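Handout, tutorial session.
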Amino acid sequence: MARLAKRDIDVALAPFSLHTGQWALLKAVVILEPVSQVALAKYLVIEKPAVTKTVTRLEELGFVVRIGSGRKRRITLTPSANQSYEQINQAVQSAHQSFLHTISGENQALLATIMTHLLEEHRPDEQEELY
């Protein structure tokens, strides 16, 4: 199921030269910025080298910038990424809706509640360590 949804989201992200992993990190930067790479790794529950590689690529694409140095280094969106974020987010949301269009609104809400509950139950330690 996740692969099918990922495929649809990757198609929606292609015009922006992004894929789902990059989108997840970009969205996390929006939520947490300014944010360290360590905090991104914890928030996304991925390895630090994967964060470094993705941040580097997003920097090359002009979506993020690293400010500061050493332990004070933080990632933020570029002004152009701030301008295009809502358009990218809308493309992803449209892909989600297209993927879920055969499920009633009530069942979509139930699914969202269940997924939120699972995330809250299985990621509390990572969330507490972010700040």
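The second record follows below. Compare its token runs with those of the first.
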Amino acid sequence: MLRPMPAPLTFLSLGAFYSADPVRRRSRERDFGLWWRSDGPGPTFRAAWVQDTGEVYLVQHGLIGSGGGHVEVVARIPQLERVDAALRGWRDEVGTPGSLSWLRDRVAGAEAGARLVRERALDAARYPANSRISSVSCSGWSSGTNA
């Protein structure tokens, strides 16, 4: 069962984002474009993935007083391969009107898939295969014979 998404994690600045978790500061990052745009007029965003935390985040461009520097963690995807797969074709999308929604939708789907994989692994650890429960056939015979 998928758990509900937590509220978006936001920070007033990139400095506050890095200060909130020292792992972020020393981690490698992968950029995924500088000019993500909403459908209408408005700010643009830079997108990046933090290797050691698996966070995909957006940084709003602009002056601090108008929201510039604001950071939002939009997904947690531990494997770069999953991020790359989710954002395949991003270079064709970035900079176009609506590209920000495209990015958000793609990473949300990848995060849900990563969460499902983690939950299945936890279930497998909780209920190992060697503790299977015997089943009885629909006919009520457990021995497999009708005699």
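Points raised in discussion: The chain has five helices and six strands.
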